[in-house]
Amino acid sequence: MLMRTDPFRELDRVAQQMLGATTAGTWSKPAAMPMDAYRDGDEFVVCFDLPGVTPEAIELDIERNVLTVKAERRPLPGGDVQMQVSERPLGVFSRQLFLGDTLDTDHIAAGYEAGVLTLRIPIAEKAKPRRIDIAGTTGDRKEIRA
């Protein structure tokens, strides 16, 4: 079944993809793997939108504090498929994040639900606030917060 479309709307969509124009009038390349990143208590959380990607088609690698996320959206299976409208990009998408030394990259947890890849990266112990004991000349000990 063919869906009826407005040709000017389709032309606008193609122009936005090709030129990277946003509706706000600013120029930027559309992100194939949009993400949100925020701190939640003692961990850093990063969420990637990957609709239509199976968990088996996602690769996570980390080397020297550079996290690489690779995902592949494959075409529909079947040789008799006659595509009527194809707006979702296919292929391999990749994104790199440069992680600071304050993050514990040895204990990254990853989950995938409803097309969203969520990474939870703990804050390293050395980066957390801690108390330091100070010994005085009289033997009294005082604490200060570092």
TrEMBL record:
Domain SHSP: 26-137
One Pfam match: HSP20
CDD domains noted in UniProt: ACD_sHsps-like
Annotated family: Belongs to the small heat shock protein (HSP20) family.
Protein's UniProt name: HSP20 family protein
Organism: Amycolatopsis pretoriensis
